[in-house]
Amino acid sequence: MRAFFVKGMDLASSQLFYHALAHMGTGAVIICWTKERYISIGLHQDAGHELDMAACARAGLPVFRREVGGGTVFLDPQQVFYQVVVPKDDPTMPCDHGEAFKTVTAPVIEVLSRFGVHAQVRPASDLQVGLDKPATARKISGNAGGDIGKCRVIVGNVLLDFQAARFIEALPGPPVHKTAVADCLDRDITSMRRETGRSMGPEEVAGLLMDAFSSKFELGTGWEPSIPADVAEDMERLRTRYLEPAWTLGGRKRTVPDHHDVKVREGVHVVSRGESTLELREGRVARIWAGGDEAWEGKALDKALIDGMMAATGGRSKGIENTLTSISREARF
Amino acid sequence: MNIDGYNCPDNLYYHKEHMWLRVEGDLCVVGFNDFGQKLAGQIKRIISLEEEDEVEADKPFGTISTGKWSGKLFSPVSGEIAYYNEELDNEPSYVNNDPYGKGWIIKVRPTNAQAEVARLMKTSDPTFADWMRGQIVKYAKK
């Protein structure tokens, strides 16, 4: 496998590089970061539903639809990316997706522990700290995977710092939905700065990641500091596809969900439909907003209250009921 | 035929990317086989080319999502998509729960059926069971 350590890439290159390697069938580990802020959505997401595209434009946030799974993520220079590309027949990456995520995140967990940050895999693919108490666990790294071209690919990040305000601006939905998401992001997403009490630059973490990945994977000729010409040529070819609005906005439009669902981390969702917003935490409804700014939570959230609220809110009760029903099905609530 | 817990009905054709095919009049019904769906895990969304779109044998016509992972669906034959199973938009779990029934994905109007179907595998092929076992050893969940 080849190894690349590339600093401060533009947003397109930070995504197109691993896509190009995968289409070429070239196994590689990339450690990099971007010098730009942008939003990336998963292959199966609908940008027009997941995001307020006009707000993204106003906030200067380009959107890139990647060819791997997972959800909407805000990416900026305060994150270090690791991207692992493995030919399909190479046994380096287990075919079981859960095992593949464990293999790729093992070096990351090792690096975090050197800073005193003890993270664990929270299936499917989060790295979370404080997992001994799941309700208050915090995500420090997100990961996603997919089959691209001739390869299997896993991409992930380590959050050095996290500023959610711009991300919130880009979300669709009522103000209370954004308030709930912002509150959960603050509670459920952490960073190296928050966990260690100090700021750190990407090179400090990237250097250790390079050592750890070198120990775990059979990397060939050392870390190359730039994108090779042959790969750059392929990236140019892919650029016309992946940067086209038709690709970004693509995906089938037959069934657009009638609710907004932001997965803050494994175990925590904020879901809105109509005037009702729910915070789902570890399989339980943690808070409900029923058309106003007031959240119902804790002991007030017993079934009798929910039933009473449904009855009292007239037309809105259907929204709450439908939301609970669909989330029960989708999140196995 | 059941091979180490993977159901492979005898009346179907099989493609190396773990798709199945059934000839139904002048159409080819295509789906994801039992091994493929089990390896993928719980399927949450499917994106496919549309009706009247052209598909090419051995090339992807769609993708599946299991949340954190996205994978490809390959067409066993070339032709035009006549039907897409719209029920999968609301119930993608049919591919997991009933891969050879309600979980069919597309129906293709083939342009070269005779040659392309002939090169697919059947359970009666002497090498089929060995091939499947090889796939299980190579790819299946431990």
Write the layout of secondary structure elements.
The complex is a heterodimer of chains A (333) and B (142).
Chain A: E1 2-9, H1 11-24, E2 28-34, E3 38-41, H2 47-50, H3 53-58, E4 63-65, E5 73-75, E6 79-87, H4 97-114, E7 119-122, E8 126-129, E9 138-141, E10 143-148, E11 151-159, H5 165-169, H6 175-188, H7 192-196, H8 202-216, E12 223-224, H9 229-242, H10 245-248, E13 260-265, E14 268-273, E15 276-281, E16 284-290, E17 295-297, H11 303-312, H12 315-330
Parallel strand pairs in A: 1-2, 1-12, 3-4
Antiparallel strand pairs in A: 2-6, 3-5, 6-11, 7-8, 8-9, 10-11, 13-14, 14-15, 15-16, 16-17
Chain B: E1 2-3, E2 6-7, E3 13-15, E4 19-24, E5 27-32, H1 34-40, E6 45-48, E7 54-55, E8 60-65, E9 69-74, E10 79-84, H2 87-90, H3 94-97, E11 106-110, H4 113-118, H5 128-139
Antiparallel strand pairs in B: 1-2, 3-4, 4-5, 5-11, 6-8, 7-10, 8-9, 10-11
What does this entry look like structurally?
The complex is a heterodimer of chains A (333) and B (142). Chain A has helices at 11-24, 47-50, 53-58, 97-114, 165-169, 175-188, 192-196, 202-216, 229-242, 245-248, 303-312, 315-330, and strands at residues 2-9, 28-34, 38-41, 63-65, 73-75, 79-87, 119-122, 126-129, 138-141, 143-148, 151-159, 223-224, 260-265, 268-273, 276-281, 284-290, 295-297. Chain A has 333 residues and is an alpha+beta fold. In chain A, the strands form four sheets. Chain A has a six-stranded mixed β-sheet, sandwiched between helices. Chain A has a five-stranded antiparallel β-sheet with strand order 13-14-15-16-17. Chain A is globular. Chain B is built from five helices and eleven strands. Chain B has a single domain (2-133), classed as OB fold (Dihydrolipoamide Acetyltransferase, E2P). With 142 residues, chain B is an alpha+beta fold. Chain B has helices at 34-40, 87-90, 94-97, 113-118, 128-139; strands spanning 2-3, 6-7, 13-15, 19-24, 27-32, 45-48, 54-55, 60-65, 69-74, 79-84, 106-110. Chain B is globular. In chain B, strand 4 (19-24) and strand 5 (27-32) form a beta hairpin. Chain B starts with a strand and ends with a helix. A six-stranded antiparallel β-sheet of chain B has the order 3-4-5-11-10-7. Chain B has a three-stranded antiparallel β-sheet with strand order 6-8-9, with no helix packed on it. Chains A and B meet through helix 4 and strand 10 of A and strand 6 and strand 9 of B. Strand 10 of chain A pairs parallel with strand 9 of chain B.
